[in-house]
Amino acid sequence: VDLECTFTFRNSKQTYSGIPIIVANMDTVGTFEMAVVMSQHSMFTAIHKHYTLGDWKLFAANHPECLQEEENSHQWLHDSEFHIESHVAVSSGSGDSDLEKMSSILEAVPQVKFICLDVANGYSEHFVEFVKLVRARFPEHTIMVGMVAPALDGEAKRELFTVSAGDIFSELLVPSY
Fold this sequence. Notes:
By secondary structure, the protein is α/β, with parallel strands linked by helices. The chain has helices at about 30-40, 55-60, 95-110, 125-135, 155-165; strands at about 5-10, 15-20, 20-25, 45, 70, 80-85, 90, 115-120, 140-150, 170. The chain has one domain: Alpha-Beta Barrel (TIM Barrel). Strands 3-4-7-8-9-10 form a six-stranded parallel β-sheet, covered by helices on one side. The longest helix is centred in the middle third of the chain and has 13 residues, at about 95-110. It is an enzyme of class 1 (oxidoreductase). GO terms for molecular function: GMP reductase activity.
């Protein structure tokens, strides 16, 4: 069974191929070590936000295979699109210091083309505005947005997705009791 899929993202226009499984950006799960293993199997890791800029530079130097990018690597891609082989995302909260740290990482390690913005209340107006700000600063990056509340109805989710300018949305799935 071939589980690999190819996606072209609405806002970033990047094309990604891989198995659509993303390791969460929790501090004990979304690690560089996990990214090395998962990328060998074409799976994705949202790296937790507690790594320093120095940690990211070291990871990029020691594991370039996790951060590959090929421009127009397939004939079916449009001229302006990139085929992304990178299987990692930098994670950030929605504070000013979070934005500053994420910006520093993306500047120092330009091979990172995915951003994971993850907060407890992904439907708040503050967060929507933050996603718009990140989109304006990083228009060619693919942005993952979470956590979107499962209680939002379909129309509210569509509006959030349209307004926020994200590319991938995660929804907290909670059991019904």
